[in-house]
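name: query_chain
kind: protein
chains: 1
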Amino acid sequence: MKKIRILLVDDHKILRDGIRSLLKEYPDLEVVGEAADGRTALRLVKELSPDVVIMDISMPDLNGIDATRRILADQPRIKVMALSMHYDKHFVSEIFKAGASGYLLKECAFEEMAHAIRVVMDNKTYINPQIASLIVESLINNSSRSSHQAFSLLTEREREVLQLIAEGKSTKQIASQLNVSSKTVESHRRQVMGKLNIRNVADLTKYAIREGLISI
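structure:
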């Protein structure tokens, strides 16, 4: 029997340990690796070539939405299953726009997770029933959030710089991590502040938390 190879991506080790332990009960599922942030996930996807990536949304260094977009741009055969605490339709919408095949809440039962993994491997979409109700309600009400969102207003690189600023990294550290010059980082910072009409790092941090780019 060919096993489904799974990469776990979540910044909470206790959650990764729990998922790994419980998925061992299913003979057709195999956890082949773990990552605590989106950037490490990109590297491990290339090294391990998993079938499914279980992806958190709010993580250090690179959020799960942009990590999903990059993974699938490089390896479209991989299935990404979002695993999140967020009920907000904004996050659901953005992760599916990035190419995810499923969305689970962290409070879900592990039987549901195993079932969802098999569903997406069958080239179908899986959405947690509570999230599905939220989406239907949104469609009925025809409501949407303001267009002033990180994922519609900012470029991918601007989101990346915003996230690293909000995580407390200096211009020099960001430049080193992204392999660009400090002047480029400062230029991105100015563009982000201008687009968002934000004038200080404290408010940038609050915005990043609200948009799910970082967690508290």
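note: The chain is about 55% helix and 15% strand.
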